[in-house]
Design a protein that fits this description.
mainly alpha, rod-shaped, single chain
Length: 187
């Protein structure tokens, strides 16, 4: 090393120090990014959990809407049967023969009651369907947020620091090579 000038030694030393400082800075920056990435991933996991809970709530509401619809339909049919029974009793009390027009009246009452019952069933089915669609939407959001959390967690925050170190080492090696070539020493 006696052939090296002080300026050359100083230049190589400063290049090595610059590379070390650059690497340390990049490492610090990447650690800060890693903390941000971790926070983003944690938020995505939380959002996924919320979406999945909402999905379950919507499924329960759909089931409850169908249950209430069945109960309303049964109640409607029961009330229709009571109306028919009351009409039959009034007609019989009047001494009316239950053939012909009176039978038509009872049939019309039964048909109207069935229409009401089916309307209640259809209303409950629509309500349940709306809840089921919402549940699917929440389920998809849960999958999306889980995927986002996994993708965020998989990204490597230290690529920049590694690139900085390699770049600095390459420049230092290039300076060393130039020094060797300028001083008549081949590698």
């Amino acid at each position: 090393m006696s052939g090296m000038s002080t300026a050359t030694i100083l230049s190589l030393g400063l290049s090595a120090a610059g590379t070390a400082v650059g690497f340390a800075g990049q490492l610090q920056q990447q650690q800060t990014k890693q903390q941000a990435v971790a926070a983003t991933a944690a938020q995505a996991v939380y959002q996924s959990q919320v979406a999945r809970q909402n999905e379950e709530v919507m499924k329960r509401r759909a089931d409850e809407a169908l249950r209430q619809g069945r109960a309303a339909e049964e109640n409607s049919r029961r009330l229709t049967n009571q109306r028919i029974g009351a009409q039959t009793a009034r007609l019989a009390a009047q001494g009316t023969d239950l053939e012909g027009s009176p039978a038509d009246i009872l049939g019309d009452t039964a048909a109207a009651g069935e229409v009401d019952s089916l309307a209640l069933r259809a209303k409950a089915a629509r309500e349940a369907y709306d809840y089921q669609v919402a549940a699917v939407g929440y389920g998809n959001t849960g999958v999306l947020e889980t995927t986002r959390a996994l993708n965020t967690a998989d990204s490597s925050p230290y690529l920049g620091a590694g690139a900085s170190l390699l770049s600095g080492a390459s420049m230092l090696a290039d300076k060393w090579r130039n020094f060797e070539l300028n001083n008549g020493r081949a590698l």
